[in-house]
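Readers of this paper often ask what the protein records in our data store actually look like. This encoding replaces a full spatial description with a residue-level series of whole-number codes. For reference, a complete record is included directly beneath this paragraph.
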Amino acid sequence: MHSNKLTVHLNEMLMCSSDLSQITYVVACAATCSFNDYFFRKFELIFSRIHMNLNFSGILSMDKFLMRGNESEDDATLLVNSISQISADAFFVTQKLHSNNDHFDVIYYKQILPKKLADRLLIYCEKNIKYFTGNLARVFLFNQWHPIPRKQMAMGHPNLHYRFSGNVIPAKPWNAVILALRNLVSEIAKCDFNFVLINRYKDGHDYIGEHRDNEKELDPSSPIASVTVGEKRDFIFKHYRVNHQPASASEKVCIALEHGSMLLISADTNRHWSHSLPKRRHCQNVRINFTFRKMKLQLNEEDKD
């Protein structure tokens, strides 16, 4: 069957047919034939658009379809290929968060990475990401240095760094896997991110306190994208008050960030709302977060310390 006809045929049947034998036949044809990257993207888009995980006997699930390939491929190559095959034009289930206050523009993408792909990314990071130690694993608060209550490291374009609570975090060169994730996130967010801060929370005792990302190195017009793999954790927004008085209940927004999800925070929200990932003692598993930012390539003299 010609690839274009196969695409149209599958699309029509998945949208309106309940005949599983027909669907099985078309998916089996697609799984066994040799087709080019263009057709693969079209095929993946169909699966994404209907947001289904086909678990019927004889039918490939979206996870299995994305993760197909030569079993001899190393983890990094397989991850790069799988992430690169996800179309930013695919239909993602999204939720626009709401608040009674102004300047709140946040979109939650429930799953940009299929579960099996998110699982493999988590395993890859646990095996391969080397987090900062020593002076780079501490913050300066209340006139003294404290260990960071999580692990972190950064990657990005050359010569970029990030000032965080008295410390200067240098960007290590991108590796192929995180660069592929960066490319996908940049396409979805329509922003050319050039830096990522990777935080590892070993369990619910690790956390990040209330803060705003207002460092001088950040492009003030750029959104921030946060991708989660691992344990689901609460992420809390609080309307920022200059006088630091406690926020009322209507000024707080909480979202549980799930495995494979992405949170897109507008620049305006970041200026007017703080955010945090509080302790949750019932959470016992690892969560890894990738926070993508756009940094200024060069600081003006008046911006330098």
User: Anything to note?
Assistant: The CA atoms of residues 243 and 272 lie 13 Å apart. The domain at 83-293 is CATH 2.60.120.590 (Jelly Rolls). Residues 13-40, 47-72, 300-305 have pLDDT under 50 and may be disordered. Helices lie at 3-16, 20-32, 37-50, 62-66, 75-84, 115-128, 176-189, 267-272.
